[in-house]
Write a structure and sequence with these properties.
Blueprint: H1 4-15, E1 23-28, E2 30-31, H2 39-50, E3 56-57, H3 58-67, E4 70-77, E5 83-89
Parallel strand pairs: 2-3
Antiparallel strand pairs: 1-5, 4-5
């Protein structure tokens, strides 16, 4: 996923003309705090080595949503390695 400007641009395009509040959902592997191993941490290292990219922590997603003009209202865990970040435009 790109930075806050790209995120805001895509979200605004998708939400334009909508009269009701729209939600921004991001399906992502959130890096858990601490030193325990996990798939998101493995993916983070792999992405850094191959493409220079990275996975983000929940805190980094809160900041990303904030800078893009959205409020991240919750992160919903799933039974898989990914979670769903749900945000609303301010």
């Amino acid at each position: 996923m790109g930075g806050p400007t790209q995120m805001q641009s895509h979200a605004n395009s998708a939400c334009s003309g909508r009269k009701s509040e729209a939600a921004l959902l991001v399906v992502e592997s959130f890096i858990a705090p601490g030193d325990d191993p996990g798939m998101a941490k493995f993916l983070d290292r792999t992405m850094m080595l191959i493409s220079g990219g990275k996975e983000r922590t929940a805190e980094e997603f809160w900041e990303l949503y904030d800078r893009a003009g959205f409020d991240l209202i919750r992160i919903v865990p799933t039974i898989t390695e990914v979670s769903i970040g749900e945000g609303v435009e301010r």
